[in-house]
Amino acid sequence: MFFSSFLSSPSPLTSLLILILCIAGVGFVSTTSSKIGQGYKLISIENSPDGGLIGHLQIKEKNNIYGPDIPHLQLYVKHETEDRLRIHITDTEEERWEVPYNLLQRKAPPSLTQNVVRSRKDLFPLAEAEYSGSELIFSYKNDPFSFSVKRKSNGQTLFNSSSDDSDPYSNLVFKDQYLEISTKLPKNASLYGLGENTQPHGIKIYPNDPYTLYTTDQPAINLNMDLYGSHPMYMDLRNVNGEANAHAVLLLNSNGMDVFYRGDSLTYKVIGGVLDFYFFSGPTPLAVVDQYTSFIGRPAPMPYWSFGFHQCRWGYHNLSVVEDVVEKYNKAKIPLDVIWNDDDHMDGKKDFTLNPVNYPRPNLLAFLEKIHARGMKYIVIVDPGIGVNNTYGVYQRGIANDVFIKYEGKPYLAQVWPGAVNFPDFLNPKTVEWWGDEIRRFHELVPVDGLWIDMNEVSNFCSGLCTIPEGRICPNGTGPGWICCLDCKNITNTRWDDPPYKINASGIQAPVGYKTIATSAVHYNGVREYDAHSIYGFSQSIATHKALQGIKGKRPFILSRSTFVGSGHYAAHWTGDNQGTWHDLRYSISTVLNFGLFGVPMVGADICGFYPAPTEELCNRWIEVGAFYPFSRDHANYYSPRQELYQWESVAESARNALGMRYKLLPYFYTLNYEAHTTGAPIARPLFFSFPHQPELYDVSTQFLVGSSVMVSPVLDEGQTEVKALFPPGTWYNLFNMTQAIVTKELHYLTLDAPLNVVNVHLYQNAIIPMQRGGMISKEARTTPFTLIVTLPSGTTDIVAKGNLFLDDDELPEMKLGNGYSTYIDFHATANNGTVKLWSEVQEGKFALDKGLFIEKVIVLGTNGTDGAFEINVEGEPIEDTSKLKYSTAEQKFIDNLEDEVDKRKSMMMDIHGLELPLGKNFVMSWKM
Description:
Layout: H1 12-23, E1 40-47, E2 53-59, E3 72-81, E4 84-91, E5 128-132, E6 136-142, E7 145-151, E8 157-160, E9 173-174, E10 179-184, E11 190-195, E12 211-213, E13 231-240, E14 243-251, E15 257-261, E16 265-270, E17 275-280, H2 285-296, E18 309-313, H3 319-331, E19 338-341, H4 361-374, E20 377-382, E21 386-387, H5 393-401, E22 406-407, E23 410-411, E24 414-416, E25 419-422, H6 429-445, E26 450-453, E27 465-467, E28 487-489, H7 529-532, H8 536-552, E29 558-560, E30 572-574, H9 582-597, E31 603-604, E32 606-607, H10 616-626, E33 632-636, H11 649-664, H12 666-679, E34 684-685, E35 704-706, E36 710-713, E37 722-727, E38 730-734, E39 740-744, E40 748-753, E41 760-764, E42 767-772, H13 778-781, E43 786-791, E44 799-808, E45 822-832, E46 835-843, H14 846-850, E47 854-863, E48 870-874, E49 877-878, E50 886-891, E51 893-894, H15 899-904, E52 908-918, E53 923-928
Parallel strand pairs: 18-19, 18-33, 19-20, 20-26, 26-29, 29-30, 30-31, 32-33, 39-51, 43-47
Antiparallel strand pairs: 1-2, 2-3, 3-4, 4-17, 5-6, 6-7, 7-8, 9-10, 10-16, 11-13, 12-15, 13-14, 14-17, 15-16, 21-25, 22-23, 24-25, 27-28, 34-35, 35-36, 36-41, 37-40, 38-39, 38-41, 42-43, 44-45, 45-46, 46-53, 47-52, 48-49, 48-53, 50-52
Helix pairs in contact: 5-6, 6-8, 10-11
């Protein structure tokens, strides 16, 4: 939801204020600073009881820059798996804040009391030594202490924390509210991640750009700024002599931090917690994400309907407007699966309520019964702020159960849309129960199909310690709802509200409690907001997921604005408040791709932009991109003109074209959902995921892959009717016109025609893509017969292709095989010795058979035709009567302008139809070329 502040609307006044702050010396953080101290000395190291190492570090020379040093540290190192290494550094004497082990489940290091000296044979040499795992090697130096992580297979140093005299960064610094550690990096490394951040330079982390991680309600229009989520991980992709290797580094810490990337080094400056590093060895980008999500939690399975198209707007003032929107989508023949309400349905903007005038319950229930019968779904927003109102049952029960974050023993008072609010403390088990009960009560009132949890960074329209004003109404309803109307005073008298090191919050070193909960406020068990701030949305996602799953035992759908490491295990994400500009359309691709790395594959941006009004041309181009986001939703602001896709006929045509193809590809998207859930593989991916050995692709941010085989090359600039696209080596087929092919032996730029209603999408060779007929809604589309698109590489004689398909009852919470309600199929094709063979290998075919699903058509691209002699058998039994089977061929046109090669090539598109191959049974089909 739109939150306008002086930071989110860069007016001349804002620019002047920022300039004044910079001149005053409180502006942007410098990437260089004098070194802090002499680091630590390793004074002992030994084997730990669990097979790791435990070391003891002692400060070399104390200083008081950013506070006193912690004199003694415990070092713990463990190869946790063959491809994961953990390095944990904390205070030896006192426990420090860590991301709660019950929220992000993992093994705790040995307790501090277990650090006892063992026999001499357990001791490691102090000077220098190595501790080797299957693929990663930990080595250390003792004075000053530093460590490095190397790859065993090629000897590359992945992380090196030592600081030489010429380096602009310190050795290890560990104070109560300031931790600093750095690593040297090769200049040819390509880094990705460190979000959430709108990156103007594309997907690669750019040297000397600010990367501040602290969850903040700042619109995505703000570049290089801490936004809604905190993901302190990066992937490092290196190409040495044509050989590519990727690894990832996670610093599991929820405190605010600045990360400085200089091109040849990276420095963390963190304002609390511990240093808890995890290294993932890869070596491919896909393997990195597999290993990463194996640790942080596999992405949540999403229901089938969530891959349909969604429509939302803040400003559907009454139910009749929502009904009208649904019918106009239907009339315009634009697919639509889900209709959303922002806070318009609420009574006084209070959670879990209905406006009795504009959304009367009997009428809303009748509407939901109608759209549910059609197969459509309904989702509403929920904000964490609970209105302070003694007649409001949700608030009354919250007070009775003592569920709110406290300040000096009283619920902390803030302001969001309802006015004065208290914030639930999701670290409190009682809050999780109360929240689940409120969701249950609301579901009985309105049978919603999912929840949208917004404003959970957490967002507060006020700052400091506030009280409800006497003698005036707050808010008064006459001005913007985001203007603070409580009586507030700044809190700057604690080291938690005013820490010694100032992270570059909101891009101007704003106080860490600015427009959020005061960081000296207290959670359950005395946890400070200072430490737990960036996990608020994560903890709310967990509680919401538990509640929704408990209501009917169905698979939940949750969309969360604020995210942290592990959020993808529970929720989807959208990129927040963007603008209807060409720049924002371009930025959206990088952010979507980043969240795939973060283990949040179900992600998208507000199509056409949240505010202000997009142009008609921009909306055309945006739906052509947004139709291929994993999460595809049009969403607009209260103050913007209406921008549903049917508002312009040209946009409606683009939507029918692009969304029409998306709905045909739904089985492909849904199978990618299964892959994401089981292996972490992103749904939308950078091109280098499929071509990691091509360094020219490492910073391509204007094209992307859906899965491994579908490439989207959209128009991202105004007034363009062509697009310059980069094609990796191989054969690519135009998805919208499969008689067109591109063949290249090298990376090849090609200028493609792209009239207003056309988006260029290409299929890569060696793939088998399952598709269906499509339709206006996923419930209908998923019952239609299947087509297999087989993409053979052109110009070769010995070829293979493969693909897969996952089908299930998407109402079930688990997405897995073995429950009797799912089917998984591998498809294979080969062509050699003049024969093409296509076959399936089915696991648990009963579900597909019970649904009556079958293949009606096979389209083979890149063959040289057939003599028509088809042989088919199903479960080993030959099909004697093939009289219904028909086929047609069309010669393919090569549009890559390589005339000499084109003349020598002949390639056909073959359409084999009239088939009735049951999906749930193994089949083999062959024919002579």
